[in-house]
Amino acid sequence: RKGNVIITGASSGLGLATAKALAEKGQWHVIMACRNFLKAERAAKSAGIPKENYTIMHLDLASLESVRQFVNNFRQSGRQLDVLVCNAAVYLPTAKEPSFTAEGFELSVGTNHLGHFLLSRLLLDDIKQSDYPAKRLIIVGSITGNTNTLAGNVPPKANLGDLRGLTGGLNGINSSAMIDGGEFDGAKAYKDSKVCNMLTMQEFHRRFHEETGISFASLYPGCIATTGLFREHIPLFRLLFPPFQKYITRGYVSEEEAGERLAQVVSDPSLTKSGVYWSWNKNSASFENQLSKEASDPQKAQKLWDISEKLVGLA
Ligand code: NDP
Fold this sequence. Notes:
Bound molecules: NADPH dihydro-nicotinamide-adenine-dinucleotide phosphate
Number of helices: 9
Shape: globular
């Protein structure tokens, strides 16, 4: 049978390119988990994804209620789940004030980390039950959360501190809207959320890989300077960022190429190792990359896991 893969945020950018790459291989049925049904349908059509190879299902990661509803709807579809890709994200670099999810968590960490945390915790059981030979759970990371790289050292740097803001609920009322308890900074909140994504993947690996055989992975697909991720940035940035990445840092990768990379992590038999953060070199060959000290700290990962469980109502 075809493999079934859920991709969150498949209505644009990396998620859409990955959906296309997988659906075109013919061996995958892609469940596009998106907050805007019409946008997703239009995107799938204009990308030319074969109709029989995708289904769109509503998911708004900024609402835990919606995450639970999505899981119920997926279960009712009767499909087995073989691979889950947590890809959706928001990035609010120019926001002066924090915005919040339905449950009142700062929007970037609430969407990128907490929404995906609940989703993957709930769907773990479904992946476990699948009879597919290579089952995987993938969470898209980023270089920007990795302070052991040049890009990760551009201020404001990611830093979760002692997680006091997260412990307080990130609500901006009786706790800070930032994980480390500091002043709100949208760019930093995004980077922090990506550190959470990478820590979560490793904690999943430690807790569940042996028992379930599921491969847990994260990746940095390269700088895809043309995606909607930068939509909130100032116009001059949006104009100069793609050529800067293309010709100066040479970290630029097209949406199509990045989609092929993520599709490899979903389906390539040589990329099944669990607990790995994948990256690609200049010749587009994959390799196991090193994470920064903070993004690979097992104690922090455990603490993040415990606090996140409480916030999403699992503990
Ligand atoms: P895009 O903005 O193009 O795509 C983000 C997707 O997330 C969109 O489909 C968006 O939906 C969706 N989304 C946002 N909020 C929600 C929500 N509340 N519920 C459901 N879906 C939501 O950005 P990219 O493709 O660049 O980003 C994809 C991933 O790649 C992210 O995890 C990002 O961190 C990562 N990444 C990107 C890099 C880059 O250079 N672009 C580099 C490294 C990592 P909608 O279409 O409705 O807005």
